[in-house]
Amino acid sequence: MESQHPNDCLYYLVTRVSLSLTSLLKKRLVESGCDFVKPAYIGVLLWLWMDDGMGTMLGKFGKDEGIKLNDLGKLAGLEPSSMTGLIDRMEKDGLAVRANDPKDRRVTNIQLTQKGINVRKHILEIMDTVTKEIFATIPKKQEDIALDVLKKILISASNLEKF
């Protein structure tokens, strides 16, 4: 295989975009006084906020125990070893707590703290602002295409990981 210019290498570009977005998001979080929310938490928080929102919408039906750590890791696309450290840091920053599953003491559930619930709207606004800044010079149709392509890449990569 011939040497490829970095700007023509999909892997390089995706990695650089990810790093650039993460850097900009971190900067905006610090500027807004939310430096306790790290970009690495975002995927987990989005799933926890979704779980909390669904529970609230459905009246909880006794669902105050949170979401299983293993299930949350799978949803967020993180390995169990990565989840352990991430949840440790989220607990230290006051966003989430571990809780015993009332149905199975071998299972650890993750719950949002009140701080984790309260910060949701503000963090989503920051993420929306960062997205608008990034896509400011890109037509909406191309933004939609980029989102669609990234979803397809993620599905494809996830399917390849299973083999």
Q: What does it look like?
A:
The chain has 163 residues and is mainly α. It has a domain of 80 residues: Arc Repressor Mutant, subunit A (Orthogonal Bundle), CATH 1.10.10. 62% of the residues lie in helices and 10% in strands. The protein has a 3-stranded antiparallel β-sheet with strand order 1-3-2. A hairpin with a 2-residue loop joins strand 2 and strand 3. Helix 1 packs across helix 6 and helix 2 crosses helix 3. The radius of gyration is 18 Å and the shape is globular. About 4% of the residues have low confidence.
Short description:
The chain has 163 residues and is mainly α.
Count of helical regions: 7
The rough form would be described as globular
Q: According to CATH, what is the class of the domain at 39-118?
A: Mainly Alpha
Helicity range of the residues?
55-70%
CATH superfamily of the domain at 39-118: Winged helix-like DNA-binding domain superfamily/Winged helix DNA-binding domain
Which fold name corresponds to the CATH topology of the domain at 39-118? Answer: Arc Repressor Mutant, subunit A
Low-confidence stretches: 57-62
Q: Mind telling me which CATH architecture of the domain at 39-118 this is?
A: Orthogonal Bundle
Keyword list:
single chain; 163 residues; mainly alpha; Arc Repressor Mutant, subunit A; 7 helices
Describe the secondary-structure layout.
Layout: H1 10-31, H2 42-57, E1 67-68, H3 69-76, H4 80-92, E2 96-101, E3 104-112, H5 114-118, H6 120-134, H7 140-161
Antiparallel strand pairs: 1-3, 2-3
